[in-house]
Amino acid sequence: MAVISVLLSILIALANPELLIETFILLTVVLYTFASFLFLQKGIKANQTFKVSFRDFIRVNAFGSIIYVGYNLWKMYQIWFDQSGVKKMAKDIAGLQPSGSMLSETYILTLLKAGFLFSLFYMLALVVHIVITLILVKKHSNLFVKNTEK
Question: Are the C-beta atoms of 79 and 113 separated by less than 8 Å?
Fold first, then answer.
C-alpha cells in the first residue's frame, strides 16, 4: 500500500516539482521500514550478516524518516492551531460533496481531527521505532561486516 502511495506521489510530483522533496521524504520512510524489517528478520532472528553499507542505509533512511515526522508535526501544528484553516478545509470538503450528501461540515471536521490524532500516534510510534532500531543496530554491530562472502 505504501509503495503504491509513493508511486502515485511521484506521478503527481512530476506535475508539481515542489512535491518532489515531499515524495523523496516519504520514500525514505518506506525504505526505512523495509530495511528495519530485513534487519530484524534476517539479522537479529537469523543471525545473517550484512554489508556495512546496509547499516548506513538504515541510518540514512531513519534520518529521512525523522525529517518526515518533523515536517508533518510542523504542518499539523500550523493547521491544528489555526482553527480557521481547519474549518475552511472542512467547508471546502463539504462543498465538494454532491448535493444531498449526508456528510455535514461538522462531521467532516470531526473526521479531520481524528485523522490528525491518528497521524500523531503514527509519527510518535515511528520515532520510538527509529530510536529502538538505531539502538539495536549499534548493539548488533557485529552483524555488519565489510565483506559478506562465506
Answer: no
Q: Is the pTM of this model over 0.90?
A: no
**Adjacent-strand bridge partners of 51:** 145
Q: What is the 3-state secondary structure (H, E, C) of 93-149?
A: HHHHCCCCCCCCHHHHHHHHHHHHHHHHHHHHHHHHHHHHHHHHHHHCHHHEECCCC
In this structure, are residues 44 and 35 in contact, taking their beta carbons and an 8 Å threshold?
A: no
DSSP letter at 51 equals: E
What are the tens digits of pLDDT across the range 3-36? Answer: 677 677 777 777 777 777 888 888 999 999 999 9
Largest CA distance in the chain: 68
Phi first, then psi: what are they for 51, rounded to 5°? -75, 155
DSSP letter for 84, please: H
Q: Tell the residue number behind the cell numbers 528478520, with chain if given.
A: 41
